[in-house]
Specification:
8 strands, flat, DNA binding, 147 residues, 1 helix, 60s Ribosomal Protein L30, Chain: A, DNA-binding, single chain, DNA-binding protein, PPC_dom, two-stranded antiparallel ribbon
């Protein structure tokens, strides 16, 4: 992702520390990092502010996600993996977020735009390039450990 904004990540001994700001798209920033730095695969954790977040719950019978979008939540935890699918970056993340009443929601992250404040992500890079493949029995992408 090329723009005039300050850097969004620094390199660490095990990967990267990424700090996203208001308006940043989580998936676009992670995908850009994978392309720009040729990240073979990685795991990540994060937390911070979500201006808009869409969670999904996978319906195995219909083989699709049922999405629900929320605004202005605090992302209390996010975990995920970075891999490749058909030569393109593939982000898989789950998270939990809370509102001002301390009610929480969570699930598979389908999209997230950072709200006020920031979103901090620790990315641990793995040496092997990992890919996602569709598992026909469930109709969803799964991480493959095969080369």
């Amino acid at each position: 992702m090329t723009d005039a904004s300050p850097p969004r990540h620094i390199e660490t001994p095990t990967g990267y520390l990424m700090v996203l700001r208001q308006g940043d798209d989580l998936f676009a920033r992670l995908e850009a990092l994978m392309r720009d730095r040729q990240v073979p695969s990685a795991s990540f954790v994060g937390f911070g502010f979500a201006g808009k977040v869409t969670f999904g719950f996978y319906d195995f019978d219909r083989k699709r996600y049922d999405p629900k979008t929320y605004r202005n939540l605090e992302l209390t935890n996010m975990t995920g993996t970075l891999a490749w699918k058909d030569g393109e970056p593939s982000v898989h993340a789950h998270g939990v977020a809370g509102d001002k009443t301390f009610a929480t929601v969570g699930g598979h992250l389908l999209g997230l735009t950072v709200g006020t404040g920031s979103l901090e992500i620790t990315i641990t890079v793995h040496g092997e390039r990992l890919n996602r493949e569709v598992d026909p029995s469930i109709g969803a992408n799964v991480l493959s450990l095969s080369p």
